[in-house]
Amino acid sequence: MHDIRTIRENPAAFDAALARRGLPPMAAEVLAIDEARRLNIQAAETGKAEINRLSRDAGEAKRRGDLDQFKDLSDSVSRRKSLLAASEKLAEEKDQDLRDLLLTVPNTPLDDVPDGPDETANVELRRWGTPRVLDFRPAEHFEIKGIAGGLDFATAAKLSGSRFVVLRGTVARLHRALAQFMLDTHITEHGLAETWTPVLVKPEAMYGTNQLPKFADDSYATTNGWWLIPTSEVTLTNTVAGEILDAAALPIRLTAHTQCFRSEAGSAGKDTAGMLRQHQFEKVEMVTICTPEQGRAEHERMTACAEAILQKLGLPYRVIVLCTGDMGFGAQKTHDLEVWLPGQNTYREISSVSVCGQFQARRMNARFRAPGAKPDFVCTLNGSGLAVGRTLIAVVENGQQADGSVALPGVLAPYLGGAARITPDGALA
């Protein structure tokens, strides 16, 4: 959420930042509500002071025995209390109006984020690895002979409908191995603290990480008021909600492996084949809580952590910085990692790493205190490290062989009983 004081001080800069996202100016509307809120707060404060004065005068009149003046003053106090209640109610209403409006306004991009209307204006930063040149037609993951038997979409559709999958046998084991490998790498090599969190959260947690109100249609709500998390960004980030942290304890770097749930309301007709886009999936998430000054360096660090997973798996990828028109609602700057998928003959997103500045912290009231300083809002970052299902797709498509077998990355051997490949009939070997 935005700092109203910053908007008051420089409304033109606020509107200019929104314009970079392709949005109309909003400063005038925001400030009009803020002015009405402040006027009613001032009226309430003035009313309280006047009530206190009149009450003192009434008390003195009663002590003097001046009952007529006592009655007049008491009547004035009663009238003032009615006016005070009205001012306080209006102030509360305007405060809620201001909050409701600001909750719908996206974060402002950093100066070095490229401008542009959509993904066509994203800028490639670097590439790693060279895609294999195959002497046969590359198959998509669900077409690979050794893999297809472990992807049961028919049973999943019977159980749950479209955009679900049942993993069986070797494919299920490979999926589990990938998640474990990611966690172990982040914990032992990258210094992230493993965390296990619920997948059901209160609405305020979803508001805190800006899933609500903007993306309610892309999320699942339960009948008793809980929400299913779209990623453990929600739970990991909200662990510091309402807290005042010691600056010396920052940065806090966390990771978690969880089920994730997305209704994908805005993706109708996209990626309907295979398991690239699912309503239920698994992800190893990374979250950092730090000071605003640490934010940019932590963004680069988190991006490198995600890249390290892909490099260890030997998967070609590229890193792009998203333009203002393609960047997520809560982000100041985002790096997307796109992995090469031979079956689609293109790069596809496998990780998104974003720095959010103090945007989420204001929504959560998450602060830190440096020695001798007033509390200030923390900076939050989140990123995939990685999406497990998409990593499985990348591993099997890049490792596919002409006979339908799959060569597996060597780093997974300890998690697969030493296996180096999946045979055409779906067995580990």
Give me some keywords for this one.
single chain; 429 residues; alpha+beta; Helix Hairpins; BirA Bifunctional Protein, domain 2; 2 domains; eight-stranded mixed sheet; three-stranded antiparallel sheet; 40% helix; 20% strand
Descriptive account of the structure:
- The protein has two domains: 4-102, Helix Hairpins, CATH 1.10.287; 119-422, BirA Bifunctional Protein, domain 2.
- It is elongated, with a radius of gyration of 28 Å.
- It is α+β, with helices and mostly antiparallel strands and 429 residues long.
- The mean pLDDT is 95.
- The strands form five sheets. An eight-stranded mixed sheet has the order 1-11-12-13-16-10-9-4. The protein has a three-stranded antiparallel sheet with strand order 5-7-6. Strands 8-14-15 form a three-stranded mixed sheet, with no helix packed on it.
- Helix 7 (169-188) crosses helix 12 (388-399).
- The protein has twelve helices and 18 strands.
- The two termini are 52 Å apart.
- The chain has helices at 4-9, 11-20, 27-64, 67-102, 145-148, 153-159, 169-188, 203-208, 233-238, 295-313, 359-364, 388-399; strands spanning 123-128, 151-152, 166-167, 193-194, 200-201, 220-221, 227-228, 244-246, 252-261, 280-290, 317-321, 333-341, 346-355, 367-369, 376-377, 379-387, 406-407, 421-422.
